[in-house]
Design brief:
heterodimer; A: mainly alpha; 9 helices; B: alpha/beta; 6-stranded antiparallel β-sheet; 12 helices; 24% helix; globular
Chain lengths: 198, 546
């Protein structure tokens, strides 16, 4: 196997000036702690933490104004919990989960999992997660990235970003545009660079 | 009281749709009962979350649970998955539409290479030559795109494909480049998708949502868009959707008199019939026979051999990935445009049984790619994840490997003793562990896939570890066909050995698995079965007519 990814990543990092990075991080933090629309399920502090977590998972480093926040992810997640607060998470929600929770992730334990996870993060942070600096936030998340709590929020973030915008998490097709996907009903060849003239 | 139709067909998929049309066109009265809804092309959409993750078109484990275990010594629990479509058209509505014929060797491999100890490996009671006219018939009747004569490994055919292949994608160009550098023989993928307008249907518009999705243009040659409307047009075939058949009724003479089902409101209904044909797929067909146990048939209907549900085969599967310098944009158009079958036959030099083929594709719509499409060492969140995803989504392709599964009696479908579905009926229980040769074949083919991607100039390649399979959408072998009533469930005509007016035709009829793409053969068998069943009805061997 080649080390293409590592090379690619190194190139990217080198092109990002530290000053730019700090400014972006600051904007991100400001957005995360700015007043968010009200949440259906989560309290304001929980909601702000979820916003900050998802903005770290899908930041705006390369596309200002297009982090998970602008894509609507915090409220996409909030809505999932609001509509399943009776514990009706079921097999259909495997889409939003890819880590172990005891035997079966098929009940309202998602609710406990995320509430306990947020509380635990606040304890570790000695205050709300959203109030940490961006570097501290990343460090805190790196420390829990194999936990079911983290995996659940990560999966929900990714699903929201690339699901149909009608679900509220891919606002203005932000996720799709980021990766170069376009949902059309009709395409014509050539489809890509290698089949032109084929 | 309305008279019983000549035939009730349970299931409207690959086989059920074909048999319904053939029998209705031949003048018989047919009722088709389908669990799922009867959707139109305009009902289909590109909603990946609903379709792939929330079972919009497939069996939904929230009300139809499946339990899974590796061996009979275990108590089955969660962790397995079987996927089959639950709508009119069945699997042909949502499948990728790969449409490989079997080769001669798939029918007589045991005679060629000998028995394999501890397995149910056997010849089919029919040959490729016998099925060839039906392969041709299905290709022309439903509409298949492809190019005959390119692959030196193609089995003989009496007619070319009715439509030219679909336009090659970047993955196909790269696949061809890599394969040719290695001295292999790529060829245009045969696909059950119209590459141009065909019999009043639209040609493909290249929207890119074939695998898992229904076709909003009706260009996919599903039974939903092809034979089912023609069956209905005869005025002799009713397609009744929302009907969950749970029992095959039998009289004192041991003949079936029809079926009992729950309608969409869970009301119990009975549908009498002169003969019954099961086309429910390789999991639901044996389950229905086992659910139909009675004092006369205590081990399940048509199960005097004890083989109902046994010899479940998934087919082998492995995936490799490569990223290229320029965008491929694999999200556009049909999934697969190039295939190769250089490794189709068993080669003793490999040291194990098996064979298969490779194809070029990107197996992930956007959510799937973001969750599982990147190399294993890429971070799964944050800036580097995002940058890698931005770069990789349009530049990645897979080589998918499709291979054999050996028939093992220990791999099977049974009724779960404790878990029930939403109707209170015993859940499907799956017991499955791949034969070591099947795993070896998957790994061997996967290594060829990586070689191909490297030869094609991939900047980086990676693969998904081959592990024991815990599910599939290819459900085969569970009511195998044979001449010996003690060693098979149906005869050469798809008639059950035990119940003279009960027939079975679907993936369950397979004796061996083939090499990964079963639908073409299921449908060829269905045309052939319909011929045989119509003959039996005409000669009075089974009751028909008024």
């Amino acid at each position: 196997m080649s080390d293409g990814t590592a090379t690619l990543a190194a190139t990217w990092l080198a092109t990002i000036l530290p000053g730019v990075r700090a400014a972006v991080a600051h904007a991100q933090r400001a957005a995360a702690t700015a007043e968010l629309p009200p949440f259906e399920f989560f309290g304001p502090e929980e909601g702000a933490d979820i916003a900050a977590i998802t903005a770290q998972m899908w930041p705006a480093d390369d596309a200002p104004g297009e982090s998970a926040l602008e894509a609507g992810i915090p409220h996409f997640i909030d809505h999932l919990f609001a509509t399943r607060s009776d514990g009706s998470f079921n097999d259909k929600d495997f889409a939003i989960y890819d880590g172990p929770i005891g035997a079966d992730p098929v009940d309202g334990r998602f609710t406990t999992l995320v509430r306990d996870g947020l509380a635990d993060l606040a304890t570790r942070a000695g205050g709300r997660f959203a109030a940490l600096s961006p570097d501290q936030q990343r460090q805190a998340l790196a420390g829990i990235e194999t936990t079911p709590f983290f995996l659940l929020l990560r999966r929900m973030t990714v699903v929201g970003l690339f699901a149909n915008p009608s679900y509220g998490g891919n606002a203005a097709k932000m996720g799709w545009r980021a990766i170069g996907f376009e949902d059309r009903f009709v395409w014509q060849p050539p489809f890509g660079a290698y089949d032109a003239g084929a | 009281m309305t008279q019983a139709p000549d035939f009730v067909i349970v299931g409207s998929g690959a086989a059920g749709g074909v048999i319904a049309k053939e029998l209705a066109v031949s003048g018989f009265r047919v009722v088709v009962l389908e669990q799922g809804p009867h959707l139109k092309a305009t009902d289909f959409h590109h909603d990946e979350l609903a379709t792939v993750y929330r079972y919009a078109l497939t069996n939904d484990p929230t009300f139809s649970p499946t339990t899974f275990r590796r061996s009979a010594a275990e108590v089955a629990g969660s962790g397995g998955w079987l996927q089959y479509a639950r709508l009119v058209g069945g699997g042909t509505a949502h499948f990728t539409a790969n449409y490989w014929r079997f080769h001669e060797i798939d029918f007589n491999e045991r005679s060629k290479i000998g028995a394999i100890a501890g397995t149910g490996f056997d010849d089919w009671p029919i040959t490729y030559d016998e099925l060839e006219p039906y392969y041709t018939k299905v290709e022309w009747d439903i509409g298949v795109s492809g190019q005959a004569g390119v692959s030196p490994f193609d089995p003989p055919r009496s007619k070319p494909y009715p439509m030219p292949p679909l336009p090659v994608k970047s993955s196909g160009v790269l696949f061809e480049r890599g394969a040719k550098r290695l001295g292999w023989h790529p060829f245009p993928a045969p696909m059950a998708i119209a590459s141009q307008p065909y019999q009043g249907r639209n040609g493909c518009q290249h929207c890119g949502f074939c695998e898992f999705f229904g076709c909003e243009f009706g260009a996919k040659s599903s039974t939903l868009f092809t034979v089912i409307p023609r069956a209905q047009a005869t005025g002799r075939c009713e397609i009744r959707s929302g009907c969950y058949v749970f029992r095959i009724d039998v009289d004192r003479r041991g003949r079936t008199t029809g079926v009992t089902y729950y309608d969409a409101h869970k009301r119990e209904r009975r549908q009498p019939a002169k003969s019954v044909i099961l086309c429910c797929n390789g999991a639901e067909t044996p389950r229905l026979l086992l659910l139909s146990a009675s004092s006369r048939f205590p081990d399940g209907l048509a199960n005097s051999s004890g083989l109902v549900g046994k010899h479940l085969m998934f087919t082998g599967w492995a995936l490799t990935s490569g990223v290229f310098e320029q965008p491929l944009n694999e999200f556009k158009s049909v999934l697969v445009t190039r295939v190769l079958q250089d490794f189709y036959e068993t080669d003793p030099a490999r040291g194990f049984y098996g064979g298969g083929g490779l194809d070029a594709r990107l197996d992930f719509p956007p959510i799937g790619f973001a969750l599982s499409g990147l190399p294993p060492d890429v971070p799964r969140w944050g800036a580097e994840y995002q940058r890698t995803l931005r770069h990789y989504f349009t530049r990645t392709m897979n080589v998918a490997c499709h291979s054999t599964s050996l028939p093992l009696a220990s791999n099977n479908i049974t009724l779960d003793p404790t878990v029930k579905d939403a109707w209170g009926l015993p859940a499907l229980r799956v017991t499955y562990r791949d034969h070591p040769d099947d795993l070896a074949m998957m790994r061997w083919l996967q290594a060829r896939g990586l070689e191909l991607l490297q030869a094609a100039g991939a900047q980086r390649t990676w693969s998904y570890p081959v592990t024991e399979q815990s599910g599939s959408n290819h459900l085969l072998g569970t009511c195998r066909m044979g001449t010996d009533a003690a060693a098979s469930v149906v005869d050469r005509s798809h008639r059950t050995h035990d119940v003279p007016n009960l027939f079975i035709c679907d993936g369950s009829s397979f004796v061996t698995s083939g090499r990964g793409q079963p639908t073409c053969t299921i449908q060829a068998l269905a045309y052939r079965a319909a011929d045989h069943i119509a003959r039996l009805a005409r000669t009075g061997e089974i009751p028909a007519g008024s």
